[in-house]
Zn-dependent hydrolase (Desertifilum tharense IPPAS B-1220), 258 residues
Amino acid sequence: MHLTWLDSNSWLVEIAQKRIAIDPWLVGVLSFGNQEWLFKGVRSQDRPIPESIDLILLSQGLEDHAHPPTLKRLDRNIPVVASASAAKVVQKLGYRHVYPLLKGETWKLDNHLEIRATQGTPLGPFTLENGYLIRDLHQGTSLYYEPHGNHDPQLKDLAPIDVAIAPIINLSIPAIGSIIQGPERALELAQQIRPQFLLPTAAGGDIRLEGLINVLLKAKGSAKALQAQLQQHHLPTQIIEPQPGERIELKLKQPAAP
């Protein structure tokens, strides 16, 4: 299994000889509803569009997960597995093969991979976004992704899972509370699914953040502190912090049984 972190929540996952782009933001500015005074993410430079993408996986419909300028640059024939809200975004952009998944539903790619939607982040009273469990149907290796720390309590029934991509830093706004839940939720996740490796997501990387929200954001936690907690709880999980654009190989032990 190879992983490349592309800043923020954007990843390229290579598993079962397939290349999956997760929540890609690769080009242009990131803002919400074009309100750049409120929040603006700026790249030092655009990232190259990865070649030979077999699948796009979108966890949420907001711009930091379903980024329209990036999605406009990708091939509309690439299949997209998405939350219900993200599916609407790519359908409006003209993607031809869109597969919305609700919690517990699965989708297979060429009988090589199974994508299972898990409970993700609630955005309002009527919108529940997705986490995902990706499983290599031949090798048995597995990867879990959820970008806000809202982990499905039923994940324990799918454990162990080899690799987890999840936030390890808590980001909060005064008077609103946590918008990304890191250290405590990451520890609970490791106790639930006992991954061999945990890779942090939702960090900035080569990105400059501007706007009112960025001024108000408060961060808490670190990889070093979480690794110490994992050791205190006798958990074997190793935290790996890749550099933006770095392609890393995860040498897994015996694949976890489903």
